[in-house]
Amino acid sequence: MTVLHRLNTRLSLLMVFGLILVGANWWRNQSWSRERVSRRLEIEMMDTGMRLSGMMQHFVRRGLVSSAELEMSYAAASPVLDLGVVCDSQDRVRFATQLQWIRTAMSETPLMDAVALAEQVRVSMAPRMVFDEEQAVITGAFPFYEEYHSRSRGVVVLRFDANAELRHAALEALLESLAQACAMLALCLLLWLALDVMVTRRLQDLAAYAKAVEVGGGTGHGAVGDELAVVASNFEEAVTNLRASELRLVEAAEAERRRIGADLHDDVCQRLSAAQLKIGVLESALRREEHAQAALAGAVAEDLAKATRVARGYAHGLAPMLVQTGRLEEALQDLAATISDSFAVRCECRCDLGERAPGVWVDTHVYRIIQELAANAAKHARPSLIEIAVKITPETLTLHVTSDGGGLLRTSGEGIGLALVSQRVRALGGQWSIHAREEAAGGSTATCEVSLEARHFSDEG
Hints:
Blueprint: H1 2-62, H2 65-76, E1 81-87, E2 93-96, H3 115-124, E3 128-132, E4 137-145, E5 153-161, H4 163-195, H5 199-215, H6 227-288, H7 294-318, H8 321-324, H9 328-343, E6 346-352, H10 360-380, E7 385-392, E8 396-403, H11 416-428, E9 431-436, E10 444-451
Parallel strand pairs: 6-7
Antiparallel strand pairs: 1-2, 1-5, 3-4, 4-5, 7-8, 8-10, 9-10
Helix pairs in contact: 1-2, 1-4, 5-6, 6-7, 7-9, 9-10, 10-11
């Protein structure tokens, strides 16, 4: 134990010294990154300012107002340009990257602090830049002649916001330092593995503990073979068991869904149908007596009929017998109709299932994935149209759920429904993602792609 203690002490001191070096290196990298960003932005401002001043001199002299405005709009596309104005000799804004400042005095714009700088540039007719380190902004002024005489001196004033660039540079420096810290930690661990004579016994104990935990208690001894191989084998077995448990949970959830759907169909739907019949009889009796409440009874009968249809739709969604009998396309069409009725949104479904049908377990996962994504879109994206598309070829399975709503189908915090979608996609061995649509109407599309193998066409996954 004394040798082990000394080794651990020296290793700890080495790690502390390494962390100090990493911290010093981070500080140096951050300073260098700030200098590089500042220099790059100054060069970019000089290029932009000189180009704009030259072009403004040409446009103003020839009266090309539209061309000048277009050039300012191009300049406004720069992510670091906070504000840019073109002022005449009287300090009145003629063109700007923000239209509300046109035809106002420069002192009335956010660039009021640059009025003195602009005046100095008019006098010297030489460009000049000022870097405010406290606010991380760079202000530059670039002169030009509005007319062909020296008294008409205009100026282009630009302000670059370097905050985002500096934050990005600081983040890069931090990530680089973290990578160095991780490398140092890995090196220390390698040294510990090479020098610590107690490693073998520790790994044996670890393997025995992992085996004991796996079987639910007791101590595991007598491992044969290389200790690292034993640990790897136990870990692999634990991961396998975890994935198997995950799949069993998904199957159990599916069985519970089917049970609830059957109960809903056999009990609640029957009760609603019976109540509808009774209300219908009551309505007929009230109408024969010309009772004033006959219309109300009819409205109640209609509401019960609608509730019965919705309940049947939920029951079919929870226990889709069409999926269990290999009729995936019919099940998805029914699902689209249920989504339309339940959420008052148009839902359309297109299927191209090919000639060779996959196993029922694949159909079940596909149905549940689409069901969750479509319901998620209807609830959260506020769409007017949801489109479901499924295509199966001998090599791939692709599904899309598209919504024209105002946002993505999900937010940054995934709920349990989307977590189950991820589980089902993993069970299929595929990948899925959600991204915004490129169309001007907005909305988003959820896409799942699976490379089909022989197991996908069998009844057991």
